[in-house]
Structures are given as structure tokens and as C-alpha cells.
Amino acid sequence: MAQLSAKEKAAYLGAPPKKIARDLRAFSRTARIFSSNEQRLLKKYPKQWVALYGGKVRASAKSLTQVLSKLEQQGVPANQAIVWYMDTSGRNLIL
């Protein structure tokens, strides 16, 4: 398979390379924030779905549908948020 140029990759992904890089850095930063605060979030939101975006908790609820609805109401793109079920049993469900 031939290597794609930056322009071809951007066209495939539907965004300019600089925006893709910026979005990936923001997602990575949010993931690090989640990871370093996981225990605190688990205590605050036990048995709830939690959505993080832009380094902050943007929504929490008992159901995934409710969390996704809250994100939509705020104009937060669900496909760019970290959505995690805070399971006190030790299982991890990550979307």
C-alpha cells in the first residue's frame, strides 16, 4: 500500500492536518486528566456514565443514552468525548 501524503490523509479524515493534530492533543490531554482523576471520579459518580471533553466532566447520568443526550444539548461532539462507565466492581467499559 502506498503512503498517503498529508493532504490525502486530511481529505480522508475530513479535516486539515493542523486541526487533526490539535484535536488529538486535546483528546490526549483529556485522557490524561481522566486517568489521573479516575479514583476521585469513581467516588463522585459511582455506577454512572461520565463524559469528559475539553478536560472537564461535561455530563453524567445512570444511562448512556442520557449522557449522550446531555452532550448533544451542550453541543459537545460525542465522538470526541471520553465516555466511561464508573463501575465500582472493577470492570471497565470504555466507549
Report on this model:
The protein has 95 residues and is of the alpha+beta class. It has one domain. It has three helices and four strands, in the order ααββαββ. The protein has a four-stranded antiparallel β-sheet. Strand 1 and strand 2 (56-61) form a beta hairpin. The protein starts with 5 loop residues before the first helix and ends with a strand.
SSE arrangement:
Layout (H helix, E strand, L loop, with lengths): L5 H8 L3 H28 L4 E5 L2 E6 L2 H11 L7 E4 L7 E2 L1
Antiparallel strand pairs: 1-2, 1-3, 3-4
Note the main attributes of this structure.
4-stranded antiparallel β-sheet; alpha+beta; 18% strand; elongated; 49% helix
Strand content: 15-25%
Number of strands: 4
The radius of gyration computed from the alpha-carbon positions, rounded to a whole number of angstroms, is: 16 Å
What is the chains' assembly state?
single chain
Helix content: 40-55%
Described by the principal axes of the CA atoms, the overall outline is elongated
Q: Which residue ranges are poorly predicted, with pLDDT under 50 across at least 5 consecutive positions?
A: none
What is the compact description of this entry?
The protein is α+β, with helices and mostly antiparallel strands and 95 residues long. It has helices at residues 6-13, 17-44, 64-74; strands at residues 49-53, 56-61, 82-85, 93-94.
